[in-house]
Amino acid sequence: MNVLTLHLSDTVKIEVDNSFTGQETIKYNGEVVSEKKSLLGENHRFEKEENGERVQYEVRISIKHLTRVGIDIYRNNKVVLLS
Questions:
Q1: Which of 23, 57, 58, 63 lies 20 to 30 Å from 30 when distance is taken between CA atoms?
Q2: Given pLDDT bands bounded at 50, 70 and 90, which one contains residue 67?
Q3: Contact 34, 17 (CB under 8 A)
Q4: CA distances from 42 to 11, 21, 36, 59, 63 (A)
Q5: What confidence tier does 57 reach under pLDDT thresholds 50, 70, 90?
Q6: Which residues contact 8 (CB under 8 A, 6 or more apart)?
Q7: Are 24 and 35 in contact (CB under 8 A)?
Q8: CA distances in angstroms from 63 to 28, 60, 66, listed in the order given
Q9: 23-28 and 53-64 strand pairing
Q10: Under a CB-based contact definition with an 8 Å cutoff, are residues 41 and 23 in contact?
Q11: φ and ψ at 49, to 5 degrees?
Q12: How many Å is the Cα radius of gyration of the chain?
C-alpha cells in the first residue's frame, strides 16, 4: 500500500510503500531503490544523481505512538519531511 508520494521537484518523486506484512519499498522516480522487511520500521539509504550532483537520501520509517506510520526524509542530511 502506498503510504506517501512526495514530489520534491518536477523531476524528483519519492514513493514509500509499506505492506501489512512489513515489506517496505522506497521508489525514486518509479525505480525501486531500497526494500527491507520490518514490523517496527527501518532506515533506507540510497544515492542518486541530480543535475550532475551526487545526492544522498535517507528515508526513516517508524511506528509513532503505536497508531500510525511515521516517515522522515533527509536529503544530504537536511530535513525534507518529518511526519
A1: 63
A2: confident
A3: no
A4: 26, 14, 7, 8, 10
A5: very high
A6: 14, 75, 80
A7: yes
A8: 22, 10, 6
A9: unpaired
A10: no
A11: -100, 130
A12: 12
CA atoms within 13 A on the CB side of 70: 14
Hey, what's the cell of 30? 518509479
CA angle, residues 9, 20, 56, in degrees to nearest 5: 30
Kindly report whether the global pTM for this prediction surpasses the value 0.85: yes
Do residues 48 and 57 make contact, with C-beta atoms less than 8 angstroms apart?
yes
Residues in the chain: 83
Three cell numbers written together for 28: 525514486
